[in-house]
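Let's study a protein:

===
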Amino acid sequence: MSGADQRRDKAAFLDSHNRRREFSAVEMTTAAPPPAARGSIFLGVDVGTGSARAGLFDDNGRLLGSASCPIQIWKDGDCVEQSSTDIWLAICTSVKAACSLANVSGDEVTSLGFSATCSLVAIDDEGEPVTVSWSGDPRRNVIVWMDHRAVKQADRINSSKSPVLEYCGGAVSPEMEPPKLLWVKENLQESWALAFRWMDLSDWLSYRATGDDTRSLCTIVCKWTYLGHAHMQQNNEIDSRDMEARGWDDDFWEEIGLGDLVDGHHAKIGRSVAFPGHALGSGLTPDAAKELGLVAGTPVGTSLIDAHAGGVGVMESVPVADFASEEVDEEAICHRMVLVCGTSTCHMAISKKKLFIPGVWGPFWSAMVPQYWLTEGGQSATGALIDYIIENHVASPLLANRAASRSISIFELLNEILETLKQEVGSPFLAALTTDIHILPDFHGNRSPIADPISKGMICGLTLDTSEKQLALLYLATLQGIAYGTRHIIEHCNAHGHKIDTLLACGGLSKNSLFIQEQADITGYAIVLPRENESVLLGAAILGAVASKKYPTVQDAMKALNAAGQVVYPSKDPKVKKYHDAKFRIFRDLYEQQLSQRSIMKDALS
């Protein structure tokens, strides 16, 4: 399909989407203070897997109002795709709705920051979409983060044993960008020839808003094998300018068959790099400002991946009682791990020294908090897995209807059913209801710490029971399986140099009290929840706040705008610990069984 063909229906596409979005935003808001009481107002925008969201925060980090708008997604086997045009329209809808709900005019917005999933965007030399789809659909120019089409390409790249792989846990994942780029080059040659820029989605958003093609250290270090520590000679965050990208390993790109991306000083993948929160260009362009309902020149900060924005939005959320000791112990932040829990879960920890941890992404220099090394563990399917378990059970429709009739979520209803079941069977504690059900949650592979993208989910203990109670037990076992995965990641990180002793959690799953309690009981650590529910949006807003010079550094802004809410403590009952220790052994054994079965079947077919 030619470039002209790819743009043929753009006008009709924009018209239809504008009509569809006119009243489509799902809105959430809090009461805004009177205009006279306002100081700075920071706008954060986040693009997740299923929606674009916008939130406005005051200079105390309090949410004034937020809104969201769904985005389209196409799924076909391992291929998962989106449209950057659709995403931008959803952002514009969300920003206008959030401003309306918070009673904030566009000229009151101090700054803007973006975060997004680590999805791959292709555009041509005019900034128009280039298809990445087998279908040839010109709208579908985004390979979504969870797309696993490039497993074979990832295997080939990992066989190179390039030194850059040491900085992503020893191996690239098919969710990273080099395997996806290689897949496009090998399978969609016309798109490969047309593409003028390949960008992480959050970098594309800031480029679309400002016209500045400076890439974030967060995106290209974490997902493109860029060696961020090459900037250590210019590591003064305050004086950071658009720096020539000096962290690309040209030999790596040549060796894996993507040497053409080195041309033009890496123009297609990033020739200019900056710390998160660096002020881009001259701020919002007039066109982008008009589309967003804001003012041209509004400062925009270099972006973050969504999970990393969650880390920035919550990592300094220290309970008030701990402030005194925090001021003395600057290393305290290195004892924390942030769980950013949504469709997937990312486990973010930072350190002053680089720690090489097999099977865990990183160490990434300045990829989240500037001048700290980031370790990034993760589970590729958590919220998505819980939804899958529930929605594919025969009792799900009836439960969903019951929950809707009471205006509660299906998770709240399942939590109630479990409490009732606990009383009925006389269980000593709720977790003990799953004595006979064990789940390995690798339904979309294992990201960390095993780093096995072909690992499969396993359920042990099924019967012919199709009741609501049986679904509730499967749901609980799934929550526990996910929490055992978190425990595995923490223990692995601590065994390789981290000293994690406190967890912080944000994202949609963190609003489920049972999910958080199981995480605390199974890991044995207290979990701090943020005061504000929208931590990812706050993290994005912090980037703009730094770009506006309201705060000198990202960490200064974090300390000013992060705030702790509830703290959830693990059970003190030794029986609970003993129970989970036993189930954790079974959890680990399930994967070993899978490896054995894989080997047996491979031998049978050899």
